[in-house]
User: Fold S1 motif domain-containing protein from Pseudozobellia thermophila.
Amino acid sequence: MQLIPYLVKHTQLPEKNIRNTVELLNEDCTIPFISRYRKEKTGNLDEVQIGAIVEQKAQFENLEKRKATILKAIEEQGQLTAELRNKIDQTEDLVSLEDLYLPYKKKRKTKAETARKNGLEPLAKMIMAQNHRDIGSVASKYLGNDVPDEEAALEGARHIISEWINERVSIRNLVRAQLERSAMITTKVASSKKDDENAQKFRDYFDWSEALKRCPSHRLLAILRAENEGFIRVRLDIDSDYLLSKIEQRVIKSENSCADHIRLAIEDAYKRLLFPSLSNELLKKAKEKADDEAIKVFSKNLQQLLLGAPLGEKRILAIDPGFRTGCKVVCLSAQGELEHNETIYPHPPQNKAKEAIKKLSSLADAYKIEAIAIGNGTASRETEQLVKRIHFKNPIEVFVVSEAGASIYSASKIAREEFPNYDVTVRGAVSIGRRLADPLAELVKIDAKSIGVGQYQHDVDQTKLQSSLDRVVESCVNSVGVNINTASVPLLSYVSGIGPKLAENIVAYRNENGPFKSRADIKKVPRLGDKAFEQGAAFLRIKEADNPLDDSAVHPESYSIVRQIAKDQKLHVSELIGNKEVLQGIDLNKYCSESIGIPTLKDIVQELEKPGLDRREKAKVFTFDQNIKTIEDVREGQLLPGIVNNITNFGCFVDIGIKESGLIHVSNLADTFVKDVNEHVHLHQQIMVKVLQVDVPRKRIQLKLHK
Assistant:
């Protein structure tokens, strides 16, 4: 099978668009670059569509690689016929491919193999022919040292027949289809773990049964986690009698003594080979589907988190709150550089609140602080209340910032390289402050799985998860653009065409030669060739450059077009930028060429209207209900402000200012059916919720979205 027809079938996209996109991918072009700067060639495909082509292309390549391995193995056995080769060549999925390979697969020592060595295959063929009325007398001819009597001969023959039945593609598909339609997933608590404290979070699944095809992804992953941790046992159940009768209808052609042995072989094949193999296959397939759902949820959450509202370049005082160990305080410049750090002890057991207030007030004056960021962990509410008691000389906005992953960053190699002379507490506080200024620039330094917005992220396929998350980070970084003169190595690493090594080279060059003054200077970076420049230049921004286009999303390859437009309008390029009236009156058809058409020209004009526009919202101050300090303060019927801090398929979790997040189940998000939680809320959205139920012992809070 050929790649392009395969991609057309599996993506439902036009063949020409796919062919051109594959050509670009084979030239090592990145998804952000292709979707933004090669619209004419791809037929204006977006990142999602190009991503689908990339995924299906990888699946096709894996399939072809497996086909080559299988064909070689069968050919070496001398059993590869033209018909079998054609069947393998035409196969479009791995399951069907493995079914075709099953009869030729090298097996461990099996009952059927032993029976063959004992010379019982001819007897098995006679039984399957179903022509003998007295097969017992025929079996007596096959006795030997390892086959002492007729029953042993017949049993060996049945083992061979069982294997044939197991390897028959039509029967495997029959069982497979019935399992997909009717299999029930059933769980029972492991008796030795019933009273285990850690098992209690899974107690809903101590005695559970439902149709596997209706089991939602989050529940299946929870069940499988409970099984992996040894708290429950899981099995699939089905109406086996119905399936056995269906197999008999396909195999048994006459009612004589052979039929009785075939029935026994069918039952053996089903119980020993077919059901265990295909039920495991189905469970694996269900797990893969659940993984895909969980990864999709995680990816959406991560995208929303990375594109969270930045405060921008402000002088920030950041506080990592704590009780016994105190609150770590850092002062950051508008560019996020650490200017001062120390520790205050306003809370128990030291209770030095007055000294803390005085110190924070003086630091705010000394470093001209414009905003305060407070981590949302232990002692967060108490620290927020303390800060709000301070009468600063100038107005200062106070923000509570998520700490998720800050401790991971503070102990990381990246943090040690950034702050080699400071301990983890200082690095953690710096991370909190920088998250307020620019969530994207700071969060790319942390392993996405540690940011706390996933759903069973440690249970899903880690390779697939990492690939998806990397693509999300790459998409977010390139959609916003990166200031090449301030960006860290981790941030630059995600720029189209750059990668970790070139990112290190960029920063090293910057440190040695000073800030980049133009995009043309980027070519001077060691090992950064024409291809990397082509892929990455438009996503790298240079503030206050001589050429204003260097701080825009206009690709350098299109600068000549902008200059021509400006010349035709009798303006300098700088006068054209932001001149909406002139830009909207331009006849774009005049500037079309073989390589650049209307889609790219529209993008250029849109960028010139508002160059370097940040698509993200601006950060807003938020205040929790000051009367709610612990779960004991929460009462049914209360209306409370909250912030969405995680989204799942079954609802969203909301931070209401205490240790425990509340859950808005999908059924409480709207009065109508909710297909996608993201259509109703987004991560870090500030909302009002109504308390429906409080379970203090289990530390659970049920909420309803209040509109």
Remarks:
- The chain has five domains: 3-104, 119-125+150-296, 316-502, 520-609, 631-706.
- The chain has a mean pLDDT of 94.
